[in-house]
Amino acid sequence: MKFSIQKRLEGKLGRAGIVETAHGVIETPTFVAVGTKATVKALTMEQVKSLGAQVVMGNTYHLYLQPGDEIVKNAGGLHKFSNWQGPMMTDSGGFQVFSLGAAYGTGLSKLLKKAEQNKVPLLLPETFDDNLDKPKIATIDPNGVTFKSHITGDTHYITPEKSINIQHNLGADIIFAFDECTSPIEPISYQRDALERTHRWAKTSLDYHRSKDKHQALFGIVQGGQFESLRKESAEKIGAMDFDGFGIGGSYTKEYMDTAVLWVNEILPEEKPRHLLGIGEPEDLFMGVENGVDLFDCVAPTRMGRSGALYTARGKINITNAQFVEDFSPIDEGCECYTCQNYTRAYLSHLFRAKEMLAATLASIHNLYFIINLVKQMRRGILDGNFAESESKFLKSYLST
């Protein structure tokens, strides 16, 4: 993999660049379509490509459990197995350390919502409660994570070496070191322990990967939650390792996410690409690009689409609301996606109310097109020198409702 910077965003860390992989070129910044189980839900790979997607990301944990990484390897790798011809990525499985561990049964996400913020005194580590109850089906030890399959209930043990080996079998162009994604309400004492563990696992992942002489690019992941000292320490330690690029992972509070990303990207080597893991709301994408993020992934566009929540230039709408039953306009005026060019709000409202499978497909087409092309507009804004004006115009309309 090679990375080059074409143009920098004046006064900010943002940049437009090119990532060269064995399966094609990625123009950055870009949004990565999430294909958790070797499929972007409700869409064919041909449809995903038609939306402008350059990269698809698979999920190591889910593909390990089903169909199994050895089956994918025997099929010729993830590209051939899924019929995606372009660049691919796989995560490390570290997010499931959080979702099956600290977050299991709590309803928490890695991005702390406003309604949840009374649970945690923001950025005041000395006041955290070290004894928070955390129901879980994943347990962590110094060398790895034991978890129960959500499919069969069988017990599995994932180490950094096993995570990398699974990703070698899957064969994506860009893979990630095994890490621990922590909860946004964890105390700083736990965050410190988790960070030390993530740094050890990063080195183990890197050493194992290099020993196998694989040509996949390996990204190390920066953690540290919302604590400045930990984020900067992680950026320094992970940035000093010989990774091909970097992921920015972990949990955030909404108001401080931009600050946490800035802390990290001011330290990480400028000549290597940076991926913000699991973040995809429009306002957060602008923030990330401004602060030097090159790639993003998030399940939100397709997950929201399957429930009837749709992006528009004036904010999100829920197409199942009664006001859309006889609305014969497109989802988003001016949108050039297949759905908006051929179908109306009333038709999608009907599909969702009738529980037709086509509803998820048409909604996912629109949402994914909206987000992918929004990030493409950000790239053009950097290259053309009008990023700030474009951002201001979009957010003024999008956040107006």
Could you explain how this protein is built, in words?
By secondary structure, the protein is α/β, with parallel strands linked by helices. The protein has 2 domains: 2-305, Queuine tRNA-ribosyltransferase-like (TIM Barrel), CATH 3.20.20.105; 308-398, no CATH class. The chain has 15 helices and 18 strands. It has helices at residues 45-50, 60-65, 69-74, 78-82, 94-102, 160-170, 188-211, 228-240, 257-265, 282-290, 300-306, 338-342, 345-353, 358-384, 387-398, and strands at residues 2-8, 15-21, 24-28, 30-34, 56-58, 88-90, 111-112, 138-141, 144-148, 155-158, 174-176, 217-222, 245-248, 252-253, 274-276, 295-297, 309-310, 317-318. A hairpin with a 6-residue loop joins strand 1 (2-8) and strand 2 (15-21). It is globular and about 60 Å long.
